[in-house]
Prior knowledge:
Layout: E1 14-17, E2 20-23, H1 52-76, H2 78-94, H3 107-120, H4 122-128, H5 130-143
Antiparallel strand pairs: 1-2
Helix pairs in contact: 1-2, 1-3, 2-3, 3-4, 3-5, 4-5
Amino acid sequence: MSGELRDDGGHFTGDHICGTIRISARRVQGEDYGIPFRWGEVATVATSATTPEQAMQRTFVHELGHCLLYRLMEQEGREAVKALIKPVFREAVDMSRTVSERAEENWHEYFCETFSASVYHHRELTSRDPVGYRMVQQARALLEVDHGDS
């Protein structure tokens, strides 16, 4: 992605452009955070945070997932990464295994929400979407990113 950061006044929680992550501190309880976590039923992993600060942190991890995904595409090639993630995404959607509604949008969002779940809902991810968990672990290994769970 390329372009300049812009703020059009609309509501956003986070975004990324050219490796720059921008996180909003404005959070609305019951919309952006404070929603009880139910696998596959929350809008995003971040919405299940209990405080605005936790929601910001979870949003950062999601956006970091986008940066890692783009770095992986630079390193391995877009088609190779797409071949790794898209079938896992389709299977997760078909089998109703996605962690959130956002994860159902496309393979990019699936990767980022699953990456976020690997940090915040690790145990549940390994049992509810083990293929997605392995996908994240494989991407981390390719990028030589610390797994944090060893």
